[in-house]
């Protein structure tokens, strides 16, 4: 099974004759991610240079064999994308983007536009996504050049991408005076698409319902919030600003403005020390949230990043087993299924991310 964008660049490839049970995915910069089931557990890995070249070469050969039989216009375009030409996409990607560090899974096929770079907080112990760049806001002229570079990079492949994701970490925290012109630029460059973006509770709480209604009128539809947990002492231990009470008030405001929300919770964070309180207070928080059809709750298996490991060792916080972490996720899923009908629940595995 092969999939391509309208430019002819391959996206996914599954070929049992080449690598039994393995699905390969290609990022816009032609990095390749492999994924397969091993002993009932899904394993994934970024390929090294040698494996990438092997995959690209074998895939081109497979495409050529298919084209000899099918004479497809799309496959004809795909054959123009030799392994060397696909490798060269790295330079074009780097010219258009700062690193795209993370996205919500339902936005992997969005048009990502970087209205901001980095994260305005950037001190959570568990996160290293934006440590390589200071927080900055794109000036209108620079943003226009960025949008042009993104459009040239995507080409006809933009047809696959039905939404706009306003990056980086919490771009929606900008004042509406700064944010609205950037949204207008993005929607003019990529028309017919609604806007989505990350927001943190601490800065998001500064906006009023009227502010959020104004953003909805400008095309914003869903706001993604990294709540992580409903247990305030765990948030403090993670150096994550905000509280469960602030999260509740903010989501009430967002819903009152007609926006959909996607709160994100980490299963397993805080290890054995916080496990009971993390689950209990997260359930209490979910009970208070006015979630409805169109909203999405993400459950993200915790992966140690940044300063978290050192702090856990210092404080004697032992990790949960996979079974214990999955039990947390199951309890949250069951609660949502029973008490929040119509709300989608999905897994958010950061190790699967590829843009």
Automatic annotation (TrEMBL):
It comes from Deinococcus radiodurans (strain ATCC 13939 / DSM 20539 / JCM 16871 / CCUG 27074 / LMG 4051 / NBRC 15346 / NCIMB 9279 / VKM B-1422 / R1). The keyword Metal-binding applies. Pfam families: Radical_SAM. The keyword Metal-binding applies. Coiled coil: none annotated. SMART domains: Elp3. Keywords: Iron, Iron-sulfur, Metal-binding, S-adenosyl-L-methionine. CDD domains: Radical_SAM. This is Radical SAM core domain-containing protein. One of its GO terms (molecular function) is iron-sulfur cluster binding.
């Amino acid at each position: 099974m092969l999939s391509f964008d309208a430019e002819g660049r391959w996206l996914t490839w599954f070929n049992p004759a080449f690598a039994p049970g393995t699905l390969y995915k290609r990022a816009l910069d032609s990095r390749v991610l492999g994924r397969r089931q091993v002993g009932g557990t899904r394993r994934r890995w970024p390929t090294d240079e040698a494996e990438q070249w092997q995959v690209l070469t074998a895939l081109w050969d497979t495409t050529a064999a298919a084209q000899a039989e099918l004479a497809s216009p799309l496959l004809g375009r795909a054959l123009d994308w030799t392994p060397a030409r696909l490798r060269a996409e790295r330079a074009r990607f780097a010219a258009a983007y700062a690193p795209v560090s993370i996205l919500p899974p339902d936005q992997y096929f969005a048009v990502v536009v970087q209205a901001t770079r980095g994260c305005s907080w950037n001190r959570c112990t568990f996160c290293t996504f934006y440590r390589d760049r200071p927080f900055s806001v794109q000036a209108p002229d620079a943003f226009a050049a960025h949008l042009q570079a993104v459009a040239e990079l995507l080409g006809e492949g933009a047809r696959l991408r039905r939404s706009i994701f306003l990056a980086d970490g919490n771009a929606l925290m900008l004042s509406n005076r700064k944010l609205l012109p950037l949204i207008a630029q993005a929607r003019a460059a990529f028309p017919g698409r609604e806007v989505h973006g990350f927001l943190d509770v601490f800065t998001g709480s500064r906006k009023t319902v009227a502010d959020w209604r104004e953003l909805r009128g400008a095309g914003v539809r869903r706001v993604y919030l990294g709540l992580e947990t409903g247990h305030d002492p765990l948030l403090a231990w993670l150096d994550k600003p905000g509280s469960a009470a602030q999260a509740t008030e903010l989501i009430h405001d967002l819903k009152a403005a007609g926006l959909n929300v996607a709160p994100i919770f980490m299963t397993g964070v805080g290890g054995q020390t916080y496990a009971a309180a993390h689950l209990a207070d997260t359930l209490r928080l979910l009970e208070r949230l006015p979630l409805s059809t169109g909203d999405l709750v993400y459950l993200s298996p915790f992966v140690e990043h940044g300063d978290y490991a050192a702090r856990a060792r210092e404080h004697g916080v032992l990790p949960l087993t996979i079974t214990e972490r999955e039990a947390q996720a199951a309890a949250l899923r069951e609660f949502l299924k029973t008490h929040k009908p119509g709300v989608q629940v999905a897994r958010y595995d950061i190790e699967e991310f590829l843009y």
